[in-house]
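Methods: example folding runs. The two proteins below were folded one after another, and each record is reproduced exactly as written to the output file, sequence line first and structure-token line second.
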Amino acid sequence: MKAWQITSDGIDALQQADREIAAPGAGEVRVRIEASAINYRDLMTVKHAAARGIPLPRIPNSDGAGTVTAVGAGVTGVSVGDRVASCFFQDWTDGACSPEAMASALGGALDGVLAEETVLKASGVVPVPAHLSTLEAATLPCAALTAWNALVEVGRLKAGDTVLLLGTGGVSIFALQFATAMGARVILTSSSDAKLERARAMGAAETVNYKTTPEWQKAVLDLTGGRGVDVTVEVGGPGTLARSVDATRVAGRIALIGVLTGGTIDPTAIMRKSMTVQGVYVGSRRMFLEMNKALTLHAIKPVIDHTVPFAEAKSAYKAMEAAGHFGKIVIAG
């Protein structure tokens, strides 16, 4: 079967190769991958594999969806012909994250899913919600689940809360969809007025252009009567965290996800405001299944910016690097 491989640092170093596909062992399933979505983490892995200590060659990407073509011994609950999506962590079914779970990440510690077929644990896949296409389902394993974890598990979001979202990448757009479905008020930032308009059309109550309003945290405070938001989904990292702290209420919660911007952070304000700042690294299989129930109940469909064919996979990473997308970029098998 054909697979894309990281052979050295850089997008242009990606190579397509023929790889053997093994029969699934006990507790495993073989999946024909029909679509794979990319995340910023995948881009960084492709560009900086050596610094991350990733053994080469390595198949990239955590997010895939397709059809089960074979099942190994002892597998129950998954059958040939089922549509499934990959779990980012193959060994995190429930409970707190652990070193063992982190060592089972697809497209990093383990080979990923940017291939025609792959073998995964039966406990490392979930059924695709019936209302979604396989292409749409491929966007769920990382960005959607990260947003769900940030809002529901970490943020303890409830109807009437106010949420701050940064940018219009995959995590933020999924968070916008989830938060509005749960009856929360969303304030979203972007440097693009066109993207802000799209976000408002999707339900964002207020938006702030951080390019024309560099002190955007003050605008957020004004929009909340000086109180601050209840939950912030922080995808920027050190370069935006200080402003996110300012924009979040006393005893509020910040789900810390991204490393998109550089910088440093003084923790004094976090202490003085008695905030909870929790790192979020995707989520467990149990969270994935619960998220899929919400997707089904509210008929939520992922926002896909564009797709590229498998043979042109490099262009997907270059589009992610250009950062002009709204929602997800998907590689179609």
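Second run, written to the same file directly after the first:
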Amino acid sequence: MNPTVSTPAKILLIDANVFLARRITEALKLEGFEVVHTTQSGYALTMLEYDTPSAILCSTSLREISAHDLPPIIHADPKTAHIPVIALGDGGDQALMEAFRSGCADYVDKRLGPELIAAQIKTFLRSNSEGFRPVQMLGSSDEGLSGSLSHLDLPGVVQMLVHSRQTGSLSVNSGEIDGIIFFENGNITHAESGDRIGDDAVVHIVKYCNGVETGSYKFLPGESAATRTVLRSATELMLEALRELDEAAQDNGDGGFR
């Protein structure tokens, strides 16, 4: 093999749904990946050391060892600790945060369809190796990240910026919400939304923009805030926002939130 030719990144796909796995496999191969599929996590664990993948895409609905169970196992072994686990689930407001809480590096919604799933995997691996640069989400200027909140939840956008250690500003607009969040090397440093600033502003923005049908975001790299007002981590702030959403849904009885 010519040493100058890079080897295709290998994805280990673990899903008991053979039909869906076949479609995802085909889509991943079209994106240039090599794919190994298995229906059993236990078997997959035995092959990691001698056939190490670039990433593991694992279903959250497996009865044996699901995506939520894999990270502690994978990361406990120094030989496999570098392998990111990407959860493949059925959606839901809490699915993303549950995946991150369990140690997964990313979350993919099965409802997106094979082509978009493959594109998200490609985006994730590129951000891991080259810094955050999801080609399919870039604007025409090719200088910033922008997109619709109906396609990618705000917590997902924030987590991707955090994981790829970005510096810049994230503007968010949805309904009555008009906010901005600043990042410095992946840490949220400052946020504003109306008369709210700091931690309170981050919680407010995420709380009112999570799972919305309309809304947009735009990330401009390189911009920094003059002051630091955010003291807690992005994960803590998003968990608080989603916890408040849960409480509001219980109070309203129908999940509605305004």
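Comment on the second run: Residues 14 and 43 are 10 Å apart (CA to CA).
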